Design the sequence.
């Protein structure tokens, strides 16, 4: 198998993150976040200069996610950006003068570095939410239709990556990967008024940073963890016998499930900071690591799980 370079261009500042998620398959526009705080959209047919650019954050754009385009999602083609200035912003690529939503640190409070973001709950044209993870372990879920904070918790470890099992369905589970090898699966379907959302916590075999958790597009209960040890861990989320229980006052509360480690693979001697599955071929995946290598992987037997 060979990789053939089709074109090459150089941006004036370093690029930190990117997504195709807000573009239609026919467009294939790439939205990127840079070290200078810029959000840029690139037409890959003409990659020498961005087709649109704006100053999204003061400082690095740490993470980016897109929704409403590449998949059969609902609503506007939107991009979320997480910045080192502690802000989470949502942009509609059809109206680019200003963000359609901006969630910023409270006045007078210390701005925590926002490290990660992910769209979810996009099951019709009205509903949508975005989750954000911060360097102090905060995980916040923002309701974009209502424009408010929907849920907040603290996991004690900096949140490097998070992803809903599906963007385009009602909230189900949210996988969260953290510093020191910690990861969590939050049951986002049920939120108790005082107890919040149920979650199971696990520790990876290595205490190195877990950069992300990526769900298989063919089985929403399978996700791959990738991290600082250069290892990949395939996990399955196992639902409890009863997902909801009622408290003494009859209010519903979620019940956390558990995770099972199915397989592991030492892909690199350096940290694996990026991983993604093929939406077309089950088990086909790609990862990038600090040794400047891109590896194409095949995970077999997933159709039996």
Sequence:
């Amino acid at each position: 198998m060979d990789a053939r370079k089709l074109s090459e261009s150089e941006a004036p500042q370093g690029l930190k993150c990117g997504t195709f998620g807000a573009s239609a398959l026919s467009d294939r526009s790439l939205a990127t976040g840079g070290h200078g705080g810029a959000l840029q959209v690139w037409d890959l047919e003409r990659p020498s200069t961005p087709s649109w650019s704006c100053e999204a954050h003061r400082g690095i754009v740490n993470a980016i996610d897109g929704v409403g385009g590449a998949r059969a999602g609902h609503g506007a083609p939107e991009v979320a950006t997480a910045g080192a200035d502690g802000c989470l912003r949502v942009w509609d690529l059809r109206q680019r003068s200003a963000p359609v939503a901006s969630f910023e640190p409270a006045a007078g409070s210390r701005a925590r570095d926002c490290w990660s973001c992910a769209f979810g709950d996009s099951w019709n044209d009205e509903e949508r939410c975005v989750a954000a993870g911060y360097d102090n372990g905060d995980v916040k879920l923002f309701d974009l239709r209502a424009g408010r904070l929907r849920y907040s918790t603290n996991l004690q470890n900096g949140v490097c990556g998070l992803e809903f099992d599906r963007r385009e369905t009602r909230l189900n589970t949210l996988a969260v990967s953290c510093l020191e090898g910690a990861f969590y699966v939050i049951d986002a379907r049920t939120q108790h008024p005082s107890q919040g959302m149920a979650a199971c916590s696990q520790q990876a075999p290595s205490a190195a940073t877990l950069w992300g958790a990526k769900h298989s597009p063919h089985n929403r209960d399978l996700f791959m963890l990738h991290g600082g040890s250069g290892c990949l861990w395939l996990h399955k989320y196992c639902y409890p016998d009863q997902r909801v229980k009622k408290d003494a006052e009859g209010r519903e509360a979620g019940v956390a499930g558990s995770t099972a480690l199915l397989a592991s693979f030492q892909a690199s001697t350096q940290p694996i900071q990026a991983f993604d599955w093929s939406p077309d071929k089950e088990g086909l995946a790609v990862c990038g690591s600090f040794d400047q290598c891109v590896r194409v992987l095949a995970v077999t037997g997933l159709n039996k799980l």
